[in-house]
Amino acid sequence: QGLYSSVVCPGLVMSNMTYRILPVFLWKLLMPIMWLVSGSTAGFVKAPLGRLASSVWLFKQKPEYLDSLVKYHSCTSGLGRCYVEPRKMDVDEDTAEKLYQKLLELEEQ
């Protein structure tokens, strides 16, 4: 029917939701360490718009050429450049196919 589904991951993004996990004073202690680590960790997205990288990139692709067993991650280089990194998901293809066939059966009902 022309419907496609893909999995995206925005990476670790510091937002209002993140700040509610720990008390404010702990974030003030942790932030310098997190910024140092972020230079060597691609999954830590520094720029707020960087978290959209995988979603925007995915929107621009032809869905029939995408791998359904891949998760598309928003990443940031040490210099702050945003990019998308496809990573194979640990999914049993036989089980995935059985679930898909079951969905098709349910759709017919």
Quick overview of this protein structure:
The chain is of the alpha+beta class and 109 residues long. The protein has one domain (7-108).
Can you walk me through this structure?
With 109 residues, the protein is an alpha+beta fold. The protein has one domain (7-108). The protein contains four helices and three strands; from the N terminus they run βαααββα. The chain has helices spanning 16-19, 24-38, 53-59, 93-108, and strands spanning 7-9, 70-76, 82-88. A three-stranded mixed sheet has the order 1-2-3, with helices on one face. GO terms for molecular function: 3-beta-hydroxysteroid 3-dehydrogenase (NADP+) activity; 5-alpha-androstane-3-beta,17-beta-diol dehydrogenase (NADP+) activity; estradiol 17-beta-dehydrogenase [NAD(P)+] activity. One of its GO terms (biological process) is cholesterol biosynthetic process. Keywords: Membrane, Transmembrane, Transmembrane helix.
According to DSSP, the number of beta strands is 3
Mean pLDDT: 77
Helix content: 25-40%
Tell me the β content: 15-25%
Q: Please state the CA-atom Rg, rounded to the nearest Å.
A: 18 Å
Strand order of the largest sheet: 1-2-3
Largest sheet: 3 strands, mixed
Structural class: alpha+beta
Low-confidence stretches: none
Element order: H for helix, E for strand: EHHHEEH
Gap between N and C termini, in Å? 16 Å
Number of helices: 4
Shape descriptor: elongated
Whole-number count of domains: 1
